[in-house]
Amino acid sequence: GIQVEQSPPDLILQEGANSTLRCNFSDSVNNLQWFHQNPWGQLINLFYIPSGTKQNGRLSATTVATERYSLLYISSSQTTDSGVYFCAVGDRGGADGLTFGKGTHLIIQP
Amino acid sequence: SAVISQKPSRDICQRGTSLTIQCQVDSQVTMMFWYRQQPGQSLTLIATANQGSEATYESGFVIDKFPISRPNLTFSTLTVSNMSPEDSSIYLCSALGGSNEQYFGPGTRLTVT
User: Do the bridges between strand B10-13 and strand B108-112 make them parallel or antiparallel, or are there none, so unpaired?
Assistant: First the structure.
């Protein structure tokens, strides 16, 4: 099956800093999503982005499908951005179950 | 986006018993999924639940251990059967949104003693 690698595994930043999270995948995908799992365990869908670039407020994401990677950018970090960020992919069409990476654990300090 | 609820939110069960987890979506959805998140780990797909057909299980998961029902377009259940301590995990259901994004429920935290 597809392998999903995320980096860095852990990241500690001060409030206001910017960050870039990376997701590499081992094979072609037609479904890629970014999620934020908050400290209470709730998973929030940030982006559905199998290719191209999207922006939502302070967050943006870019997927270069031909080179098998995706990037999540967080600007002007806030303490509420803390949690685990997961990249997840699917290779059987858009409507399929996802293979998750191990996540990036982000801590934003005040 | 879909709003998803799960029951129970948490439970402590004895070895050898079974627990059924319910997942309710606030709108009709074609596909629902069940995942497991072991302590401190990432999510692993258990199965895909389609209305009107048998669930499709991923490698390493079998119907006898994790029977799934999908009686209509807003509801699904996952049963964890004959539990052992290794089944202690968070079980999450998700639903497919209109643009192929997945929305997750809050999870069921299961502890098996």
Answer: parallel
Contact A97 B41 (CB under 8 A): no
Whether omega before B8 lies within 30 degrees of 0, making that bond cis, reads yes
- Cβ-defined contact of A35 to B104 (cutoff 8 Å): yes
CA distance A89 to A98: 5
Q: Are residues A41 and A29 in contact, defined by beta-carbon separation less than 8 angstroms?
A: no
In tens, the pLDDT along A53-74 reads 999 999 999 999 999 999 999 9
Q: pLDDT digits over B39-94, tens only? A: 999 999 999 998 888 899 999 999 999 999 999 999 999 999 999 999 999 999 99
Assigned token pair, A61: 């994401």
Q: Which residue of B has its CA nearest to A42?
A: B106
Residues 6+ apart with CB under 8 A from B56: B47, B48, B50
Contacts of B78 (CB under 8 A, 6+ apart): B20, B21, B23, B34, B46, B47, B66, B67, B68, B91, B93
